[in-house]
Automatic annotation (TrEMBL):
GO terms for cellular component: ribosome. Part of the 50S ribosomal subunit; part of the 5S rRNA/L5/L18/L25 subcomplex. Contacts the 5S and 23S rRNAs. This is one of the proteins that bind and probably mediate the attachment of the 5S RNA into the large ribosomal subunit, where it forms part of the central protuberance. The lineage of its organism: Bacteria, Pseudomonadati, Pseudomonadota, Alphaproteobacteria, Rhodobacterales. Pfam families: Ribosomal_L18p. Belongs to the universal ribosomal protein uL18 family. The keyword Ribonucleoprotein applies. Keywords: Ribonucleoprotein, Ribosomal protein, RNA-binding, rRNA-binding. This is Large ribosomal subunit protein uL18. It comes from Mesobacterium hydrothermale.
């Protein structure tokens, strides 16, 4: 019985999220979502159930609207690091969801690290 791509994605997402729940020591979660056209990221406090900061490639202020590439993901990563500092967050767990840590997701994480966010 072959699993569909969607089934494999969901299994991978649950595996990543469950591992984060086991090791989470009160830190916030940096959750990434990547679509075919855009990439977005949120800083989520799971204890309080609130989003502390968010950034997306759909924001006109970042100047990457309509671009689906590694440079756009890096700008989103830098923006979330800046907004995390403003929210008083210095370290977070990186929740890549079911996405592979490669390409745009990796560029976003690296830019957030360079911006001062400890992942």
């Amino acid at each position: 019985m072959a699993n569909s791509k969607r089934d494999l994605f969901l299994k991978r997402r649950l595996r990543v999220r469950n591992k984060l729940r086991k090791v989470n020591a009160g830190r916030v979660r940096l959750s990434v979502h990547r679509s075919n056209k855009n990439i977005s990221v949120q800083l989520i406090d799971d204890v309080a159930g609130v989003t502390l900061a968010a950034a997306s490639s759909m924001e006109k202020a970042l100047g990457v609207v309509g671009k689906n590439n590694v440079e756009a993901a890096a700008k989103v990563g830098a923006a979330i690091a800046e907004r995390a500092k403003a929210a008083g967050v210095t370290e977070a767990y990186f929740d890549r969801g079911g996405f592979l840590f490669h390409g745009k997701v990796k560029a976003l994480a690296d830019a957030a690290r360079e911006g001062g966010l400890k992942i």
